Amino acid sequence: MSGNRIVDEDIASAASSRRHADNVPYVHKVGVPPKQSLFKEFKFTFKETFFHDDPLRPFKHQSISRKFLLGIQAVFPILEWGRRYKLSMFKGDLIAGLTIASLCIPQDIAYAKLANLDPQFGLYSSFVPPLIYAIMGTSRDIAIGPVAVMSLLLGSMLQEEIDPKHKLEYQSLAFTATFFAGVTQFVLGFFRLGFLIDYLSHAAIIGFMAGAAITISLQQLKGLLGIKNFTKKTDLVSVMRSVWTNLHHGWNWETIVIGVAFLAFLFLAKYMGKKKKKFFWVAAIAPLISVIISTFFVYITHAEKKGVQIVKHIEKGINPSSLHKIHFTGSYVATGFRIGAVTGLIGLTEAVAIGRTFAAMKDYHLDGNKEMVALGTMNVIGSMTSCFVTTGGFARTAVNCMAGCNTAVSNIVMSCVVILTLEVITPLFKYTPNAILSSIIISAVVGLFDYEAMILIFKIDKFDFVACIGAFFGVVFVSVEIGLLIAVALSIAKILLQVTRPPTAVLGKIPRTTVYRSIQQYPEATKVPGVLIVRVDSAIYFSNSNYIKERVLRLLDDEEEGLKENNQPRIQYLIVEMSAVTDIDTSGIHALEDLYKSLRKRDVQLVLANPGQKVLDKLHTSDFANTIGDDKIFLSVGDAVKTLAPNMEP
Amino acid sequence: MSGNRIVDEDIASAASSRRHADNVPYVHKVGVPPKQSLFKEFKFTFKETFFHDDPLRPFKHQSISRKFLLGIQAVFPILEWGRRYKLSMFKGDLIAGLTIASLCIPQDIAYAKLANLDPQFGLYSSFVPPLIYAIMGTSRDIAIGPVAVMSLLLGSMLQEEIDPKHKLEYQSLAFTATFFAGVTQFVLGFFRLGFLIDYLSHAAIIGFMAGAAITISLQQLKGLLGIKNFTKKTDLVSVMRSVWTNLHHGWNWETIVIGVAFLAFLFLAKYMGKKKKKFFWVAAIAPLISVIISTFFVYITHAEKKGVQIVKHIEKGINPSSLHKIHFTGSYVATGFRIGAVTGLIGLTEAVAIGRTFAAMKDYHLDGNKEMVALGTMNVIGSMTSCFVTTGGFARTAVNCMAGCNTAVSNIVMSCVVILTLEVITPLFKYTPNAILSSIIISAVVGLFDYEAMILIFKIDKFDFVACIGAFFGVVFVSVEIGLLIAVALSIAKILLQVTRPPTAVLGKIPRTTVYRSIQQYPEATKVPGVLIVRVDSAIYFSNSNYIKERVLRLLDDEEEGLKENNQPRIQYLIVEMSAVTDIDTSGIHALEDLYKSLRKRDVQLVLANPGQKVLDKLHTSDFANTIGDDKIFLSVGDAVKTLAPNMEP
């Protein structure tokens, strides 16, 4: 006790003598900016939320006619880049277009089956949508068409409503869903709500996609094993049970031989393409080659008579109109809207993620909201021309890019090839065995199972990994929709949890600097005697205000306990470093007031360091700045320590 | 133009000469702490989420028998404070208990009517629950009993399911709901999920409560105007229409005279209590005086024969058991659970908010989760003893505190008075006019309309105000449940929006310091030529990673545009100040990678300043730290500028 007092006095006397010797330390005032008007504040928030990418910037300082032209160009970017299009670019686009056409034709037929639709609908969907996208899209690399996950999602959600055997009703609902998928995408883009898709975290998407890859592959066991009575459920347990019960009577060995042989071929081609980048085209045309060879093989051996299931019939000719099939009234509108909204959102997530990846690679700007408008228009028009939901597929886009595409012209080329196919050679697909389509789907979706990304996620963020695995198991063991729901729920839970339990740190002074940092990260940082410096690492909102208050008080308790044990002087100042406190609300101010009251009872002074503009403004508005005193608010922790405990600085 | 260049050269030469004179500037290394094990990391997160208040601290380093004793004391805090209870404390508790009893008896009868239950149930609910709370609760100030908002919520949700005229079925469901309210509260507390109630923001609660005050007052027009055929809906439009259509035949003038006269008296008493703190007891006993006078008045004038509605019958005696009335099976279980969960959560929100307020005022610690267990147990036992949902009421608690309560003994005193009332004087309430009960309710709930808090919210945070008003209008114009839903939805939307569009700031050097701050907040701060310093004010997560990347690039665009116009040197370094970046996930790392690629194309170097422990760890795990180079990561912006652009420092 008495020793304590002596130490105190020693320090005090030493400090006072030093203070006399030194000049008064320079302390910069805390900036109190002029108050923003309500309108200005609102305008800023509104702009950052909906127009953060400043899409209207080129329109500034332009004549009206120029503005009109720019507006037209903004809706139809082809008018802008088309004028700069050179014949030299066409070579790349042509090769890329032919390559993705050869990849997409077999895939389209296969994906149509995944959606429980007749094969020609897959080809229809690779004709109209790519054309619309070429006119309205801003990505130079995306290749448009049906994709596996959306086809599965559409198919599994549709067949819960209508049995696919009722072809016309089923198609009607499919086009209705496609229409509403387009409307959803368009509305999100038009009202610049595109940021909503960002709430589906990368990790959750990885898990969801991996689960979808498993589910889709499992579904292909039907075609690959030649099973006729297959379950309609998509979960692992049901499918395996179905496969098992069909073991003795349902499996068709000829089908299995064909299927597995070509699956091996496709994987080999894929492996080659991956191993040597310049052989990417091997992987790209392998599906078409498989189709041609297997079709020829079935045709000459008449394997279809031995139970090998074949495509049988595929409609010839250009897309028929399907406007009359869309439900605009009646009970199916709500169902169609629900299915469409879900598939549409998944489509957006996929296309925007892919578009951004390739835009970053080639360093051009991609306007997410404009993309959504383009994708939406494409699906709305698609739904009226017998197409089902389409988006930018990852594999297709990667092939497009590697084949040297320069602009969306490659989509137009692909579209032309598809229409030629529809007009001329579809009858040849009659003998194509279904097993080949299954093999093609499996070899296509296997890339969706991105285990490397999963490992990285596990390494980097454990909670992300939980979201990833949750979505994965949801898809594999329950259903695609449940998996999606889990993905969204866990993504949002992560954000909420982070805001509810923000980190805090005790700071110390880094030797030979005036900088204060976390003593956990920098063990060499030294605490200032008599002063506890706590950094709060989040905006103080209702969801965390109470936690922060209690956390700070607990840090003080811990500190004082330690000091007591070592007989050191007690804490006189609690400095809250507020650099990271970007905002505060009424609950936050109440928490600070409660903190202030509690500290006063303990005879500890509350000091704030470096509050930001917004926070400072609110501290003044709420009068809390006056409560604790303006002289207790500093520019930096260094200034606070210099002023309040000049003799204590280590 | 040329002047500009000269200034630049001046600075450069001055700086270089200075460098030769000085030593090489001291640059502290960035702290790379040892990697935490998965288990440790998980343990920390788990602890901070569920046990942030360290409830097990007193159990450390204790013998087993002592631990057992502490455990019993933790469940029944009365064993702990009861041993320290002194007779001197009892005086305060006795007076406080008598005061709140006089306030609560008339309120209880009135609130029972609000829940469409017979008046004695209100009194029952002020007998058992306060006793349980006194044994298990940790707050010294809270006074337990039925409260207006929960009673209304219970009543309005129940009467949607069962007509209150079917008394027995209605009571059954009421007790079932109360049971599940208790279970919900208990479970939340027991599993330490209490933080979930923090997602209802203060602002939303203020709006919800104000709306409830209006709704409850409107409901009282029935009693106050003596209307017999009153609407069952609670929204403003329905109620006003009901009042209007009853104007000519339904209003009872005698009732109105009595009701309005006593309402005026109650308001006067309230005003006095508010004006002079020492007269608070006037407001507290005014309701009881009103009841006594008006009952006496009706008794002698036989006003009940002129259409003045009276209580008529009120059961005498102690709480009967209601265990047999609770539905544990059947279709009403789900309904009861839904109603119970909603009212239970509202009850928690109210009690915990009140408890915290008074705990902060008197500086003692309140364990939110323990409180929830106490409240839950109290409602579960209450539901078995004919009580409906109870919680800590604000007005009652404030009176309790002002009357000088010291411990929960005041609740026990109140409880005793209530049981005496039930046993002895209930028959006297027979002639109490309903209009008086309505007046008491109105004068009680008017305080829930906290317009001062609303104004403060408007001043401090506009989005909070939107949540507040949204909840308010939801309650007033639609229903209490919709209002609640709006309140929760807007509260969560606020968190999500904040995480999606985090603030960024361009920094400059504060003159005469080594500190870099936002040039918007500190206009005197000067930029470093050739260097753009951007502070990102949030964890970089999937929901904002893309926005942050684009925002930083846009700031660079803006800056370079300005520099080009002024013919100044272009930006060579982009320093991202990461103090506030508390965490980063895989999407965030991808965004940084994309940013790095874009910057490389522009020949701008990406530099990171002051990344925290967690972030640094992840940058290394993901190999991004190697990509940009460890020498591009600095302890502070000052160090980065000193090292990279030593001649440029302003």
Short description:
The structure is a homodimer of 650-residue chains. Chain A has helices at residues 2-21, 38-50, 64-75, 78-83, 87-114, 119-124, 128-136, 148-161, 167-190, 202-225, 236-245, 253-275, 280-301, 332-362, 368-384, 394-402, 409-425, 434-445, 451-460, 462-478, 480-500, 545-565, 586-601, 613-621, 624-628, 637-644, and strands spanning 144-145, 391-392, 504-509, 516-518, 531-536, 573-577, 605-609, 633-634.
Architecture blueprint of SSEs:
Two copies of one chain form a homodimer.
Chain A: H1 2-21, H2 38-50, H3 64-75, H4 78-83, H5 87-114, H6 119-124, H7 128-136, E1 144-145, H8 148-161, H9 167-190, H10 202-225, H11 236-245, H12 253-275, H13 280-301, H14 332-362, H15 368-384, E2 391-392, H16 394-402, H17 409-425, H18 434-445, H19 451-460, H20 462-478, H21 480-500, E3 504-509, E4 516-518, E5 531-536, H22 545-565, E6 573-577, H23 586-601, E7 605-609, H24 613-621, H25 624-628, E8 633-634, H26 637-644
Parallel strand pairs in A: 5-6, 6-7, 7-8
Antiparallel strand pairs in A: 1-2, 3-4, 3-5
